[in-house]
Write a structure and sequence with these properties.
Largest sheet of chain B: 9 strands, mixed
Largest sheet of chain A: 8 strands, antiparallel, barrel
Number of helices of chain B: 3
Strand content of chain A: over 45%
Number of strands of chain B: 15
Distance between the termini of chain B: 89 Å
Order of helices and strands of chain A: HHEEEEEEEEEEEEE
Order of helices and strands of chain B: HEEEEEHEEEEHEEEEEE
Oligomer: heterodimer
Helix content of chain B: 10-25%
Structural class of chain B: alpha+beta
């Protein structure tokens, strides 16, 4: 099956006819932009049940280079490369009265980690010329996201003193984020995810803001569409005699909104 | 960069992505939940109820431990299935390791084993080759020592749990029986206790039932 899929896609790659655009498009200009972006990661809804675990929206950022090519029909093709940094924070507050033992207090924990990802972005879109100084550009595309940082932890959480001789299991925490995978994951694949991206940029044409250079400010939204190395944390809570109280899962959709500024190099 | 180059580049990236990211044939790890110590009559493969009567030679004890599974998450299941045929079965890992298993009687069993005593040394352990609740399985007399049973329980890949439709959960199971019959007919009740390497324990107590020598 793997060979079959490779063969099909290889044909697409090596056959110029399949990629021909019928001569409508001519070679255009390529402008290189340096981009910095502030992101706001929307994590509040990434937990399926928020009884004992909560996630927080966090700020992040990214920077990179993009090569923007515009055809004479104002169609934009823009591959880019960048580094994205995102902070994540999860908090657990598990009141021990839920265990069924006559005990007060709670188990609390806070988990933080920072995703550093290499991103290859492939965008396409259209540029609406507004006047001789500005244009509105709308682009969408796919991001291939390679996590550079990561960690994996399995933690059994016990409570002392509930049994005179033994420790009592009250929770199990499994946290996998970034490029790390569990020992049970025996495949040999590389860490990579795919994200969908949509952006609207207001472009200041050459001379409007900087002499001889164009610049852009834009809004951007981004979310995960697929991948095997997403941020994920499972916490299972147990009561007396290992009665399963439930499992809460943080599964990062990587939904974020961003504000960007780009300047032509 | 012309249009053909863009198309080629995009296709190349797509192929690369599928090859790198495509497979989700992943293993599982699990945690033990509260075990169930069941007493079975091997003649009719039924689980005894409270105060029912059983004959020593036709009685077997089954230990069924439901497990909490942790499977890897993959977000491209269709692609994963396409590649899965070329990947070997993934491992199954028990998160906790068992240090000891003890079986105790709560009633006087015979002259050697009074109420509250440890009967573990008097047990013959059978791995999951015998499943009283499943009529398609035949009785297997293949016994094993307790250290070997514990070793298999702790050994990844060698003692997989399975979905147990009778218990509507994935379970780990094994059975045991006693080497000697009770001294006299009477009520019996037993406890099985597991101790983990982390210093935790989980246990279950059987029903009270009548056992005849």
């Amino acid at each position: 099956m793997r060979i079959f899929i490779v063969a099909v896609f290889s044909l697409l790659v090596i056959n110029p006819a399949s990629a021909q655009t019928k001569g409508k498009l001519k070679r255009g200009w390529i402008n290189t932009f340096l981009t910095v972006q502030a992101d706001y990661h929307l994590n509040n809804d990434d937990i399926d049940s928020s009884r004992f675990m909560k996630s927080s929206n966090r700020a992040g950022g990214q920077f990179g280079l993009s090569m923007v090519r515009m055809t004479r029909h104002r169609v934009i093709l823009a591959p880019s490369i960048g580094i994205k940094v995102a902070q994540q924070k999860l908090a657990i507050d598990f009141p021990l009265s839920n265990t069924g033992y006559n005990i007060s207090g709670s188990y609390s924990d806070e988990m933080t980690f920072t995703n550093v990802n290499l991103q290859l972005k492939f965008q396409g879109g259209y540029s609406f010329l507004m006047n001789d100084k500005s244009a509105l550009e709308m682009c969408t595309g796919l991001i291939f996201d390679f996590p550079l940082s990561g960690d994996y932890q399995e933690t059994l959480i016990y409570e002392e003193g509930l049994d005179p001789q033994y420790r009592e299991l009250i929770a199990f925490k499994r946290m996998a984020w970034g490029r790390q995978k569990s020992a049970a994951n025996t495949n040999t694949l590389f860490p990579v995810n795919a994200l969908f991206d949509f952006s609207i940029d207001y472009r200041f044409l050459e001379g409007a803001l900087f002499k001889g250079r164009s610049a852009k400010i834009g809004l951007n939204i981004c979310t995960l569409v697929g991948g095997n190395f997403n941020n994920r944390t499972d916490v299972t809570f147990f009561g007396k005699d290992r009665a399963r109280l439930g499992r809460e899962t943080f599964n990062d959709r990587q939904l974020s909104a961003g504000l960007s500024f780009s300047i032509e190099l | 960069m012309n249009n053909i180059s863009f198309a080629r580049l995009f296709s190349l990236v797509a192929v690369t992505y599928l090859l790198l990211c495509g497979c989700d044939r992943r293993g599982s790890s699990f945690l033990y939940l509260k075990p169930h110590l069941a007493v079975y009559d091997t003649t009719n493969r039924t689980e005894l109820l409270v105060n029912e009567e059983a004959q020593y030679g036709r009685t077997i004890f089954s230990v069924i431990i439901p497990v909490e599974e942790y499977k890897e998450a993959a977000i491209l299941p269709l692609v994963g299935k396409a590649y899965a045929t070329s990947i070997r079965d993934p491992g199954i890992i028990s998160i906790e390791k068992i240090r000891s298993i003890k079986i105790m009687t709560l009633r006087d069993y015979n002259a050697l084993h009074k109420a509250g005593s440890d009967m573990t040394d008097s047990c013959i352990f059978l791995s999951n080759t015998y499943r009283p609740w499943d009529s398609t399985y035949k009785y297997s007399s293949a016994s094993q020592s307790l250290p070997r049973l514990i070793s298999e329980l702790n050994n990844d890949d060698r003692y997989p749990y399975e979905y147990n439709s009778h218990y509507s959960n994935s379970t780990v199971s094994f059975s045991f029986l006693f080497r000697q019959p009770p001294a006299v007919a009477g009520q019996q009740q037993f406890v099985i206790k597991f101790e983990t390497e982390e210093g935790a324990q989980f246990s279950d107590t059987s029903i009270l039932f009548n056992l005849k020598p």
